[in-house]
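Deliverable D2.4 — example input (structure tokens):
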């Protein structure tokens, strides 16, 4: 009963936060963390113990799957070099640089434990990035790089975190073994995601062939997909996070949703939108619930003469260190890309100083860092307490909050003016896709009706529109006529109209899929238009059923 009440309370405050964010000028994740802390801070407040493995299983697969599914694959493929550079190279650079900096700043933390904290802090959080970063103020190219990096760097960061913890427990570390384990975790994680997607597609195809299967059964398969991918990879000791991301990235391109009925597609769109909002909000509220207990356990190494200022300054210094490391790595990568472009006689696309700074500040940390650091063992193999466990948990939580606050406050200032005013490139692309889909529908309808058309001049645009409106009014008048013959004629005309509209929608969908395959539109545009035509198709099917 207590668990059920806790879940209901969290859901209520997720809804409340969605309303409060309109009244207070605070980013939604920061507001939700504050709500969680307020719920836990009083003497009789809410207290919850997090099981890190359960926390990762419940929150991370659906959220990463949703973000990966919505990510623009065309742009991710085009920007694969800088994305992989940040997702892998920056992780190792952060582990070394931040690990030594932390050990120097807080000598009581053993170097291997400092490397463990650096590893779990190295991944940026896809959920936090999408919640904090405003697409309207950050250049599209930088936004796509941040999205791709945050989807892929979780695997490298958490794998290295496990190696660092194992080294702290055993007192030994093998670079060769760590490298092989890393490659294994990545390869098997990707295979697990592909396998889970293949199984889901086959199940949906089977249900589609059977026919008459409730839409809810089809929707349930899409909900289970990220969890199955995650658990399958974890079962084989690989990266479940990468498996969920792989399944999300490939779901759109495989065309798995073509096996869903109209009702199932509508429910899936609505359900995943709700899931994303609810899970995002619950995640940050649960993070806030942990803060009071973490603050109460601030170790003596940080309190010194001032129990407030010194811990805050330490967390701030470490957060700025992470930002500085990102800035240096992005700067080096920018210079390297420019040199490679000149050697290959290609035009370089360097980032300016402000874009580099925006990319550095936007590397916020979130739930994966929290879940990873809370999974630290309580004791070493000899039974002695794990060194500096409470201290690194406090520092990790502090860096999460500090990175969110700095990004929320600084990004709008840094990014102001980076995006040139004018029509959004995505809007222009969407307009182009609408025109292409409409032309395909018109061509298809004309091919259907051309055998019944009489020869003569094609009526003008005004006359065609007028005829359509007049015909609609005449059908409405005839429908109210008491004559059974008139009503039957209207019903038949309405049925033919619906059939033609459905045929046009099918042609639109085929045209959009072709444009998506050719790379003429990205996933954002395709998803928006697929949603529109799915809603129209559902409306027409409803009218057809009533008739």
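Example output (designed residues):
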């Amino acid at each position: 009963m207590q668990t059920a009440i806790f879940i209901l309370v969290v859901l209520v405050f997720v809804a409340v936060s969605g309303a409060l964010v309109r009244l207070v000028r605070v980013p939604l994740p920061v507001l939700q963390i504050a709500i969680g802390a307020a719920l836990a801070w009083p003497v009789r407040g809410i207290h919850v113990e997090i099981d890190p493995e359960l926390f990762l299983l419940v929150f991370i697969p659906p959220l990463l799957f949703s973000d990966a599914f919505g990510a623009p694959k065309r742009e991710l493929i085009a920007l694969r070099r800088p994305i992989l550079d940040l997702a892998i190279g920056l992780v190792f650079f952060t582990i070394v640089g931040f690990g030594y900096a932390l050990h120097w700043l807080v000598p009581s933390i053993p170097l291997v434990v400092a490397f463990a904290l650096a590893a779990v802090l190295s991944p940026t959080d896809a959920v936090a990035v999408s919640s904090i970063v405003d697409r309207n103020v950050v250049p599209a190219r930088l936004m796509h790089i941040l999205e791709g990096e945050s989807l892929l760097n979780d695997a490298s960061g958490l794998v290295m975190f496990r190696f660092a913890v194992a080294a702290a427990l055993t007192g030994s570390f093998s670079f060769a073994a760590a490298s092989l384990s890393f490659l294994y975790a990545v390869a098997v994680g990707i295979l697990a995601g592909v396998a889970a997607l293949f199984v889901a597609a086959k199940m949906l195809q089977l249900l589609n062939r059977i026919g008459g299967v409730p839409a809810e059964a089809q929707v349930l398969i899409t909900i289970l997909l990220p969890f199955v991918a995650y658990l399958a990879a974890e079962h084989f000791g690989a990266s479940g996070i990468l498996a969920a991301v792989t399944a999300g990235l490939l779901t759109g391109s495989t065309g798995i949703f073509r096996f869903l009925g109209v009702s199932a597609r509508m429910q899936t769109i609505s359900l995943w939108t709700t899931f994303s909002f609810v899970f995002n909000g619950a995640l940050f509220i649960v993070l806030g619930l942990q803060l009071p207990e973490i603050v109460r356990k601030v170790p003596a190494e940080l309190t010194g003469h001032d129990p407030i200022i010194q811990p805050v300054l330490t967390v701030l210094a470490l957060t700025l260190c992470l930002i500085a490391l990102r800035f240096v790595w992005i700067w080096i990568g920018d210079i390297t890309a420019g040199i490679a472009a000149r050697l290959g006689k290609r035009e370089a696309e360097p980032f300016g100083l402000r874009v580099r700074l925006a990319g550095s500040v936007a590397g916020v940390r979130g739930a994966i860092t929290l879940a990873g650091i809370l999974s630290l063992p309580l004791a070493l193999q000899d039974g002695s307490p794990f060194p500096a466990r409470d201290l690194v948990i406090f520092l990790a939580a502090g860096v999460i909050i500090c990175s969110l606050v700095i990004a929320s406050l600084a990004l709008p200032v840094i990014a102001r003016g980076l995006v040139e005013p004018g029509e959004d490139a995505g809007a222009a692309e969407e307009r182009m896709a609408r025109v292409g889909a409409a032309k395909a529908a018109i061509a298809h309808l004309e091919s259907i009706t051309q055998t019944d058309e009489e020869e003569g001049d094609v009526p003008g645009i005004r006359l065609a529109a007028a005829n359509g409106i007049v015909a609609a009014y005449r059908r409405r008048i005839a429908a109210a006529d008491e004559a059974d013959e008139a009503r039957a004629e209207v019903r038949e005309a309405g049925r033919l109209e619906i059939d033609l509209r459905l045929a046009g929608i099918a042609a639109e969908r085929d045209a959009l899929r072709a444009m998506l395959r050719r790379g003429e539109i990205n996933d954002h545009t395709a998803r928006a238009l697929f949603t529109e035509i799915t809603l129209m198709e559902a409306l027409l099917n409803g009218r057809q059923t009533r008739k």
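The chain is about 80% helix and 0% strand.
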